[in-house]
Design brief:
Helix content: 10-25%
Largest sheet: 10 strands, mixed
Number of strands: 22
CATH topology of the largest domain: Alpha-Beta Plaits
Shape: elongated
Structural class: alpha+beta
CATH class of the largest domain: Alpha Beta
Order of helices and strands: EHEEEHEHEHEHEEEEHEEEEHEEEEEEE
Number of helices: 7
Radius of gyration: 27 Å
Number of domains: 4
């Protein structure tokens, strides 16, 4: 018995580690018993991250480990090793790419979860890895090891289907059936409710036809089969359900509190940079309510934020709320005798009540103002990170179950 992990077989331009892993599982000896395949998203700012920054793992039980190692060695040499060094210009991202450096690992025992937490929350180097029983390749061993070590404390499920080899151009997916599936209780993140468009098909060059997410394995399977059975959905070349850490919030480490000391809006790109006495944060235009709230902030507001700290030190905010806003406006006080709003009598002449004529010094009172959103805000579903946990989910949500 042991654990197999794989990562870094794709580039921004194309390819898919999930498909390679699916093919690898299909090539395993018939006498092995496989657990649930796992898709594990890692730190979004990793320098050598792949397009979706996901690694794969699976538990395998075999009575003949030498035969299993022979099959893994053969698959590595024939199918995975030729992918090494691929780097192509991306059509969808300006990010600098690193050549693919596939990595595969085998552990007789699942390693400590500490390496997963390190890889989902920060940068990990090869020298940081626990020693595998057997390993192949380069930097992909980092993600592969993290995927094996994932404790699966907080899970969702994703059914992924792949296109046929000769498929090209726009994906053909039955939107009517998808709309019906989106109404199922356990199906999540499949459509954008604002635009009424599907969110299950990837952008750019990828062999993935779609990935449909669910709170349960059974719903993911049925939804995938239903969508593939439609005549309005193009032909596929296999599908598989993965247990994932998507929507787990595992990448976040506590909340950040501070008082706003400065705000700066980029008029062209619409993102906002907020400075506090303890941290600085950036909110992008795609952030929806988060960006709207960030643009509303004023110096003196007390705020609380959740997000990832970029290597440059700035917090990329994912969730935001105002704890204590400062007044935005002032107005004249009320008359203490009759409760009518006082009015100015002119420069340096003080205030007078228009009803009872009582006078007072020239003063102003602060007007309290509520933020445009109560409580926490988050981006719309199409702008969230894979790892982002929705605010609507409680700490003891139905998806907090280990895979079975």
């Amino acid at each position: 018995m042991g654990w197999l992990g794989l990562d870094d077989t794709d580039s921004l331009r194309g390819g898919c580690t999930t498909q390679v892993f699916h093919d690898l599982i299909e090539h395993l000896p018939s006498n092995v018993e496989c657990g649930v395949p796992r898709l594990v998203r890692l730190w979004p700012f990793a320098k050598r991250r792949t397009r979706g920054n996901a690694a794969l793992s699976i538990e395998i039980i075999s009575d003949d480990e030498s035969e299993l190692m022979r099959v893994l060695e053969s698959f590595w040499n024939e199918r995975i090793l030729p992918l090494k060094g691929d780097v192509l210009e991306s059509d969808i991202s300006p990010r600098e790419q690193a050549p693919t450096s596939p990595g595969m690992v085998w552990f007789d025992q699942q390693p400590d979860a500490a390496i997963y937490w390190a890889a989902v929350r920060g940068n990990v180097d090869l020298e940081d890895l626990p020693e595998a029983t057997r390993s192949w390749g380069g930097y992909g061993r980092i993600g592969a090891t993290a995927a094996v070590a994932w404790p699966a404390e907080n899970v969702t499920w994703e059914a992924i289907a792949w296109r046929t080899y000769d498929a090209a151009g726009q994906r053909r997916i039955d939107e009517t059936t998808l709309s019906q599936i989106d109404e199922w209780e356990d199906i999540v993140f499949s459509r954008d409710p604002r635009r009424g468009t599907g969110l299950i098909a990837p952008r750019g060059h990828s062999p993935v036809l779609f990935g449909i997410r669910s709170l349960t394995k059974a719903s993911a399977e049925i939804a995938c089969q239903t969508l593939l059975a439609s005549e309005e959905t193009e032909q596929h070349d296999g599908w598989r359900v993965f247990c994932t850490n998507q929507a787990s919030g595992d990448h976040l480490q506590g909340n950040h509190r501070g008082q706003v000391t400065a705000t700066a809006l980029n008029a062209a790109r619409k993102h906002v940079v907020i400075s506090t006495e303890t941290f600085s944060m950036i909110s992008y235009a795609e952030g929806g309510e988060v960006n709207a709230l960030a643009r509303w902030l004023a110096v003196g507001d007390e705020i609380e934020a959740r997000g990832l700290v970029h290597p440059n030190g700035s917090l990329h905010v994912e969730q935001l709320r105002v704890l204590n806003p400062v007044p935005r406006k002032q107005r004249r006080p009320l008359c203490q005798t009759c409760g009518v709003r006082m009015k100015s009598m002119g420069s340096m002449q003080g205030l007078r009540c228009p009803t009872c004529k009582q006078r007072t010094d020239d003063t102003w009172v602060d007007v309290s103002e509520s933020p445009p959103f109560d409580g926490w805000t988050e981006p719309p579903v199409d702008a969230r990170r894979h790892l982002a946990r929705p605010l609507a989910w409680s700490e003891n949500s139905v998806n907090d179950k280990k895979p079975t």
